[in-house]
Amino acid sequence: MKRFERRVLLFLALSALFNADQTLGDSTSSLWKTEIVDTTAAAEDLTEIERQVIIEINMARTAPAEYASRFLVPLRSFYRRTLLQYPGEIGILTQEGVLALDECISALQAAKPVSPLSPAKGLALAARAQVKDQATTGAIGHMGSDNSTPIDRIGRYGKWNITAGENIDYGNGDPRRIVISLLIDDGVPSRGHRMNLLDARFKFVGVSVGAHSVYRHMCVMDFVGAYR
User: Fewer CB within 10 Å, N or C, the chain?
Assistant: First the structure.
C-alpha cells in the first residue's frame, strides 16, 4: 500500500537530551559491522552528518534490541514522570515522559532486524528541497511552500514504487539525537516516524540536514521501497 507519514515530529522538548557522548556510549561496536551499516561509500553528495544519520538508522534497523539496550535504556534515570532532568541541564517538560521511552524500548526489543537502507541521490534531492524551503520560510510540516507533498517531491527526481514515507525532525543537530527522537516519537500516537525507520519494505533513503530559521536544525528523511 502506498503511503506517507503526514505527521510532523515537533520533538523540540528533547533537543537538549543527548549532549553527553559518554552517556550514550560509543556509536559503533562489534554489534554493528561497518560494511553492513555504512551504505554511504558511493554517495559522494552527502555531508558527514547526513552520512552519520544513515548509519545510525541502519544500526537501529539491523539490531533494534541492541540499539535500545545500548542507547535508550540509559536514558530512563533522567526522567521524573514527564519532566526530563538531564544532568547539568534545565529540566524539560515532555508530553509522555518516561512512558514513551519505555514503550519505545519494548517495541525495539520485540522488533525483528531488517535490512539496512541504501542512499539514493534522487531521494536526497527531494529531502534537500524541503530543508531549503523551510530554512527560509520557518514553516514546519510535510507540505512545501509550493503546496508539494513528499510524494510530489520524491517524484520530481525519479520513479518510486512499493511504498514511500517521510520523517522530519526539528531542533536536533546530532545524528543520534535525530534518530532517537524519531524512534521515541513522543506525542505522536501513531508512532509513525518509528514505523518508517523500522519498516522492512523500505530499501532506499534520502537524508538532508540543514538549518531552520526558527528551530535552528532540521532533518528530512525520505524513504521508498524501490527507486530509479
Answer: N
